[in-house]
Amino acid sequence: MADNPMWNFDVPTQMRQFAEQSVEQAKKAMDGFLSAAHKTAAALEGQANTAQSGAKDVREKVMSFAEQNVANSFDFAQRLVRAKDVQEILLLQQEFLKAQMQAMQAQAKDLGTAAAKATADIAKPKS
Question: Is residue 9 part of a domain?
Answer without folding.
Answer: no
